[in-house]
Write a structure and sequence with these properties.
Layout: E1 16-22, H1 27-36, E2 42-49, E3 71-73, H2 79-86, E4 91-94, H3 101-106, H4 108-129, E5 133-137, H5 161-178, E6 183-188, E7 190-192, H6 201-210, E8 215-217, E9 224-229, H7 230-240, E10 249-254, E11 258-261, H8 262-273, E12 279-281, H9 297-300, H10 310-322, H11 325-331
Parallel strand pairs: 1-2, 1-4, 2-3, 4-5, 5-6, 6-10, 7-9, 8-12
Antiparallel strand pairs: 9-11
Protein name: NAD-dependent epimerase/dehydratase family protein
Family: Belongs to the NAD(P)-dependent epimerase/dehydratase family.
Pathway: Bacterial outer membrane biogenesis; LPS O-antigen biosynthesis
């Protein structure tokens, strides 16, 4: 695969005395926190997390020397929790969310409360407290399915409760920007990497392979999806702190260079795990995971480039599960 030149990190000419990362114990949030801890233009870091089933303190296996890293347990839907966390901050990176599509279908009310009401609560506090930068991480799923090379100006056509909640949260960010908050919205494709929760597609398939079960695909196998290494999503989020903005609101697609069919992904997993247990295809397809391509020229114009690869992230993910395969098999 031909690669672009590596990302040139933006000049760290914007200093932040305090950055709050919501969902900082999550799959993406912990990567962002680790990266921010190494940046010399960041003062205090605060993790604000509800510590749900998706949180994992082990993701913070990093020597945060010289950094004050308080972890505040709180709920983004709680006004008092949010004001306590954001007091004195000048930047918020918002990653706290309910994200699993099947669970959103089973419990859409929870997804609306956390993803919409929670985001609105954060935005109200950010505006009141004078936060100067708000980075909101959304999803490519707000566009819906069936369209390739979608630009940021395309209409939002979410097809699941999860995607609808994220699209509605984006509308709240846009309204806050109109009121004066400087905000950036990122719409990444499917993210993959070590540390991802077992309910997500790729970890679930790896676990099925380890248990010598047939891999359950949510398609006929030919569906192609774009994947983004979690390290590159973290890069984009951290770089967004320094990107110049002529307007209060900036929206960027964040695509992935690798587009793989579900069959190809299954083969890669079989090769890494060392099993060949067969496949099970979904009778009902279209569970909400869209597979369209994103036009991400706008974010690349700012110097962003993908440096990681799907293969490297999958290898690390498989290695993590292989290291505790005995426990997984005993639990099956």
């Amino acid at each position: 695969m031909k690669r672009d030149a590596k990302t040139v990190a933006p000049e760290q000419n914007t200093s932040y005395r305090k950055i709050v990362v919501t969902g900082g114990l999550g799959f993406v949030g912990a990567r962002v926190v680790s990266q921010l801890a190494s940046m010399n233009n960041v003062g205090e870091l605060v993790i604000f997390d509800r510590v749900t089933y998706a949180a994992d303190f082990r993701r913070l296996g990093y020597p945060f020397s010289g950094k004050n890293l308080p972890i505040l347990r709180g709920d983004i839907r709680s006004t008092s929790d949010v004001y306590k966390a954001l007091e004195g901050s000048d930047a918020v990176i918002h990653l706290a969310a309910e994200t699993h599509v099947p669970r959103s279908i089973a419990n859409p009310e929870l997804f609306f409360e956390v993803n919409v009401v929670g985001t609105e609560t954060l935005l109200n506090a950010a505006c009141d407290l004078g936060v100067k930068k708000f980075i909101h991480v959304s999803t490519h799923q707000v566009y819906g399915s069936g369209r390739d090379l979608v630009r940021e100006t395309a209409p939002l056509r979410p097809e699941t409760p999860y995607a609808t909640s994220k699209a509605t949260a984006e509308e709240a960010v846009m309204l806050a920007a109109q009121a004066g908050l400087t905000a950036t919205i990122l719409r990444p494709v499917t993210t993959v990497g070590a540390g991802q929760h077992a309910e997500k597609r790729i970890p679930r398939l790896v676990i099925e392979a380890l248990k010598r079960q047939r891999l359950s695909l949510e398609s006929d196998g030919r569906t192609e999806r774009s994947y983004l290494p979690v390290s590159d999503l973290s890069d984009a989020i951290c770089q967004a702190l320094s990107w110049p903005s002529a307007e209060n609101l900036s929206v960027y697609n964040l695509g992935g260079e690798e587009r793989l069919s579900d069959l190809r992904v299954a083969k890669k997993i079989f090769d890494l795990v060392g099993t060949q247990t067969g496949l099970r295809f979904a009778k009902e397809q279209g569970r909400g995971e869209t597979a369209g391509r994103l036009n991400d020229k706008a974010i690349r114009a700012l110097g962003y480039r993908q440096n990681g690869s799907f293969d490297d992230e999958l290898k690390a993910l498989c290695g993590a599960y292989l290291s505790r395969a005995d426990r997984l098999l005993q639990a099956s």
